Structure formats: C-alpha cells, structure tokens
Amino acid sequence: MSQGLIQGSMREAPLPDIIQLVSQGSKTGCFNVVDDSRRAKIYLKDGRIVHAVSSTAEGLDAFYEVALWLDGSYTFEEGDQNISPTITKPNASILMEMGRRMDEWRVISQKITSLDLYPISTLLPGETPSGVNPREAKLLGIVTGWYSVAELAEVTQKPVLTVAKDLYGLAMAGHITLKGVRSGRRPAIDVPASQPEPAMPVTQSVPAPEDVPKHDAPQGFPLAEDSGAFPSSIASKHVPDASAPHHPTVSVTVPAPVMDPVRMAKYTAFTQRISVTAKQVLPVEHHEMVNRLQAKATQSLLSGGGPDAVKEMALGVSRSAVDAGADAELVKSLNAQLKALFASK
Fold first, then answer.
1. 294 lies in which domain range?
2. pTM for this one?
3. Better-predicted residue by pLDDT, 237 or 82
C-alpha cells in the first residue's frame, strides 16, 4: 500500500475535487478524513466510491456528513481494502450533492459557527414572530438553550443540515441567538414520523473571502462592455462543483490526459473566484447557471482544457446573463468585475 499518495485540507483543496481527480485514474484505496475528534473513511474501487463510514453513520450518510467538515484534512492510501460496498450511485451525482452541501454550509456557518452551539429564542412570552415558515415556527418552540444544534437534529429526527438551515434563517431574522453553554429548560418535543425533507436552498450569496490568494489569471480574457447579442449559453455536464478558493498543496499521480495537477488546481480555484464574483453581482435566480458553467469548466480542466476552459466559463457567465434578460448596467458591472479578476496577479 502506498501511504499518503494524496493529502491536503478541506479549506485548501475541497475533497470532492480531489476524489474526482483520483477517480479519473481508476484508483482503488481509502480516503482517511479527520476533523478534530471526528473521523471518516471513504473507499474507492477502480475509481468508484463504494463505501463510507464515520463514527456515527455509514454509506451515503457518512459520506455526506463529511461535507460539514470544512476544516478537516484527508490522506488517500492506495490499495485494496476488502470492504462490502454500500454506495451504488455514480460518482458524479454524489460528488455534486456533496459540493452543494459544502456550499450551503459555508453560508450557514457564518452564523451557525459550530454544531455544538445552543440556540435560544429571543422572543418575548406570547410574542408571535413574523416571516417564518411552519417548520421554523416549530423549531422556535423548542430552542430553549437546552439542546445544541446537533442534538436538535437528533431529537427532531431531521438531517443536521436541514436544522442548521432553519436556524440560520431564524438567526438572520433576529429570532434566536446562539450560546456556547447549555441553559434554559428541557423542552417537550413531539417527534413526528420521519419524512424526507425537501431541499431548502439558501438564497444568500457567499461573500467573497478576504484572504483568497491571487493566482495567476489566464490572460487575454475578452468581454463585451454592453449587453448586445451573445451566442447561446453553454450547456453543462453533471460533475461536482469546485468549491474552494485556494489551490491544494497535494501530490497527485493521475494518468494522462490531464495537465499538471498543481496547475489544474490553480485553474480550478480560479473558476471558484469567477463563481463567487458572478454570484455577488447577479440575482439569486442566476446562481444555478453559474454553478453549471463552473461544473463544465471543471470537467474541461480534467480533460486537459487548460486556461481556455477558465476563459470560456467567464464568457459563458456573461453570455448567459444577457440571454436571461439581465439589465444592461448589471451586465456591464459583471463584465467589469470579471475583467478585474483576469487582470489580477
């Protein structure tokens, strides 16, 4: 077994991107993921994700649990592990879902900085909150400071990310605050029958990190200064989002036809900077379009597309904004922001 073939941190090189790189080489082995006291293992067989296990779950539940470990680190060890498969879904779909959850958690964690915090209502007795949905209203009735965020997910039998999203909305509305110690009284909880939770997208845009390193930008990026006619938007393939602004310090051995992994990681990180910039300018209804174009750029990079894939993503964002009927001044502002990215060093 080859120890430490790949190693890195979730902040510098998001795990979905690295798994995608390893899968391109049809590798068999195990990712060991660590975040403080939490541990997880993700197993690959001939490049396919076949099993995952953590201290609290296994299979897909364990795999998606890792999406909330933004400060975790990982090491990939190559070699046959002799485990029974529990995951049958294709890599592309589960890596995309993992990337989506990581994106959501990055937004949520601005307010819910830890699952070990204790939410408590700020409402006065008898006060009726406005602008909350029924699920948030039920949650308000049991946030007495007794249960932590993680414990609320357990007692309500809901996914922790769903509970965290609801608490995020309540915190943004000023209906709750979060404390570091347990307080209040234990609430009486009527646990409903378990039902699948519908996806509740977070509508706030991810703020641009102040500490994003300025990688060398692919040069020669052309953009129109107005909202005239553009070619139709670029279709995407279903691949996971690249979701971290930093390039990884990893050593990867992946068969051709891919470029040098360090350069690829830099270009992948640059697509994330384009995505963050575009989402800051464009309304939320355009964000899915940005995600699709970023996914296409990632796939192109994995196929050896080089800097042209990054340029094409930025052009595609501008074109698609026009196709969707975006205001001329909005498109001009978008183009100016994207040009500034490509002019940076």
1. 207-345
2. 0.51
3. 82
